[in-house]
Amino acid sequence: MNNIVISVKDLVKDYGDFQAVKSISFDVHEGEIFGLLGPNGAGKSTTLEIIETLRIKTSGTVIVDGIDLDKHPSAIKKIIGVQLQTSGFYPGLNLVELIKLFCGLYNTSVDPMELLKKVNLQDKAKNKVKELSGGQKQRFSIATTLINKPKIVFLDEPTTGLDPQARRNLWDLIREIRDNGATVILTTHYMDEAEQLCDRIAIIDEGKIVKLASPEKMIDELVESGFERPKQMKAANLEDVFIHLTGKEMREA
Ligand code: ADP
Ligand code: MG
To answer: 41: CA distance to ligand 2 center in Å?
Structure first.
């Protein structure tokens, strides 16, 4: 088994007298894509933002790459990449200028064009974020998480609202980030996405982890328990039809 790169123990988050995260514990292994799944309000973003040092926990321990969140939060910040909402980017700057701005913030340097090439946005270098399609915006915000060459990348609903082609394109990008050595922790509402992309997933409901395993293991266990689908599935679904008819290539570029 790979090294543990994030260790969360008995994490609790109270908002006033409402407990959003109810003593959850989990480990993320180095080099995996780890998914947090759960209905709206389950506590996924709260959990991620605590690990990202952006939110204060009520209690529990969080260790990131051996660094204790309580002791050295700024050391954690240096080794992680966090996807921001694209609405938060300075509207007046183009993509290259934004990357240079981030380099200044992180006190590092990257070749903006090389980074844009990685996410297939080299043709949009001089465009502003508002001129990008939904999928392109997401790819750009993921690119900005890579600027400080992070060990761990956090993506909160990276594919929400995208069309099937753009989602597949992002899956490839996320796998590439993992294959280049980073650990990825993401949230999603799409079960097919979690099944295809995540090595392991934690299902969170009302602030508690109800299951943590690989997608295959979860499915096998349910089948072994005697579960049967009410209607026999066909060998393809409507999304397969859609992709077959409209192709896998991105449309917006
Ligand atoms: P998820 O990302 O799984 O949809 P969140 O972590 O955003 O869930 O929210 C978990 C719960 O905590 C929700 O009920 C939400 O309304 C509540 N919550 C989130 N942020 C705050 C806040 N700043 N103040 C009060 N309640 C909050
Ligand atoms: Mg959320």
So the answer is: 7
